[in-house]
Amino acid sequence: MSFECPQEIINDYEKLFENEEEYDVIIYAGENENIKEIHAHSFVLRTRSQYFRTALSKEWSEKKDGKFIFRKPNISPPIFKMILRFIYCGKIDLEELQIPDILKFLTAVDEIDIQTLTKHVQEYLVKHYDEFLLQHPIETLEVIYQYESLTTLWDLSLEKIYEEPEIIFNSDKFTSLKAHLLEILLKSDELSLGEIVIWDYLIKWCLAQNSNISQDPTQWNKDEIVIMEETIHRFAPLIRFDHISSEDFIIKVYPFKEIIPKDLVNNKLISHMAPNKQLNVDIQSPRQQKCIYDSILIKSKHFSIVSSWIEKKNDSYYDTKNIPYNFNLLYRASRDGNTTEVFHEKCDNKGATIVIVKITNSERIVGGYNPLYWDSTSGWLSTKDSFIFSFTNRKNFQSAKVGYVADANYAVQCSSSYGPMFGVGIDLFSSIGSTWKSYTRSYPEIDIPQDRKMGNYNAFDAEDYEVFQVVKK
């Protein structure tokens, strides 16, 4: 009869780690005022780690009074103790660490070469990479780039950044981004930014690398021109000047002509001033941006979430690669005119639609799904499949809320006097001009803004709104 008690052994080794009895290894972790002495046992370290097996050899080891001495100034004491606890008893809880510390933890684990723990940290990073990128985009990208074993995480991160470049480019640490990483981003065909916007960010980055140089290029002396030319030279050919308008080129690019290769400047000037002249140069192709839907308010990820809601699935049921619907832009208030008449002209009798509303002076969006149609005369329409939704922050997909209709007889209303109308309350509708109102009755509460009261209604102002026809692929 066999008998095993692995948990008892684990508990005993954890006690050995905590009590430090008969230790023969002293580790000085951290540096300066943060240095701390940590005790361990060489027989455990040798058994569980190839790194320590080598480090404790006669050739490497430093000994004092019969004890091995290790100095690890680049690893903080709390992180080193977590690693040692794993070595002793196989226990680790990454939830104890803040995001920057997890990145430091990965670096330390990689150095000490504990492959099992490295794999566990990588799996944790993949699971939480959205959160990591949103909160610490620059640090996360730089750490991931260091490790060949993080290929999956690297690909996921780039895909998200290409689709939502503001994660990196709007970061307050953008100008600290390493040059080789900026080069990778600017080379991509999938970077979802206008070319002149990319140029503006590049100039911002270059100026930040030389903070003692004036931001006004007309004030530069010869030495400063040379310095700025050396800073930008690897990036300038990555800007697709052929896809910058003449106005933007003259106003935003031409002032920096002294630091841009002369052939790039001359070719751009010729192509606009003498468009019939044939140039013996390759025309740069435009970037193929990931978001194939014509929206200025939301990204592809929002459409994948909406697709999941349409089929009454959880938010992540679909991703950007398998969206089962086409979303055809029918109406944009800022483009077509923010009037009830134009809304009905563009959107009536087009079948199912999704409405996206951007709230003024915020990143909030709200909207609704009508699975039937809009027209000017039908009044109330009945359906069990409509919903309204909100994103407290459109850049944070975790802030999404959706509410399906509770009173199906009053799901949507069609009237020539109003634009989109959801619910009997009416729960969400376009009132007059940029004013939208809400009075929840047919749908659950989903945090629709309450900027001011207008009678029984909560009212708010919309900066813009879009309506998309929803067509199953």
Automatic annotation (TrEMBL):
SUPFAM superfamilies: POZ domain
Domain TLDc: 296-471
Pfam family, one: BTB
Residues in BTB domain copies: 23-96
Superkingdom, taxonomy of origin: Eukaryota
PANTHER family attached to this UniProt entry: BTB DOMAIN-CONTAINING PROTEIN-RELATED, HL07962P-RELATED
Official protein name in the record: BTB/POZ domain-containing protein
Species: Rhizophagus clarus
UniProt lineage: Eukaryota, Fungi, Fungi incertae sedis, Mucoromycota, Glomeromycotina
